Amino acid sequence: IISGIIFIQTLHADSKFRTLIILTEISVLSLCLIWSVTLNYPLYYGGTDSLQHLYLIDSIAHFGHINEEYASYANFPLFHILIAISYQICNLPLSTTLFLVMGLIWPIGIATAYLIFRKLIDSIPLTLIACLLFGLNAAVIQFGMYPVTRSLAFIFYLFLILLMLPPNNRQVRTFFIQIVFLISLILTHHFTALLAALIFILILIIDNYIVKSPQDNRINGTFVMLYIVAFFSYLVYIAYAFTKSTISQQISVLFSE
Hints:
This protein is mainly α and about 260 residues long.
């Protein structure tokens, strides 16, 4: 019923103030769906990964590093560091801190999605409808309730998509902000970073060779190449042990079949 009321409001959004109100309503509704589950039980762990991440966060908060049993996560620690810092600042139970902080990232994701849709769609009502569908999407609600590294990585990915889209995607200031989110994504979740690299390449090919956009409105190919070089350089030179272990496991599985 509430989503239906918001949908009707989107059809009459004709000012920045109404748009802001509707975006706030979508964000609050999304948070209510997420927190009504995660904060309603003593410990909602979704998949078992949440328990492992809670252990790693606790390790960082009390010892300043990730336990050696999970050394592979030492190369992608940004998610755990963020929650560990929040845990020490908020002085709340660790699981509550995790669910609060990771719930709050989704309104940021919804706002970022709005800015992306606004660049692609020349209609405020349609943009808001797209945001409503995004905010209430089953996958968004699921990963809001199930806070893992790829949940945070997806928000960084949205920021990079926004910064890649014209106009203003070739400004020096924009480029430096892209670098910040590039590093953040790589340090959060390796598989999301890999998928992002493939998507960026696909977007670049479509934009330059299929759609053939004007030069001023094209995706910044320099950034895409920088992202690819940075990501694979990190895997080879910094996260070497993790990369070697992952490749060895995949080869073993391949030949065992």
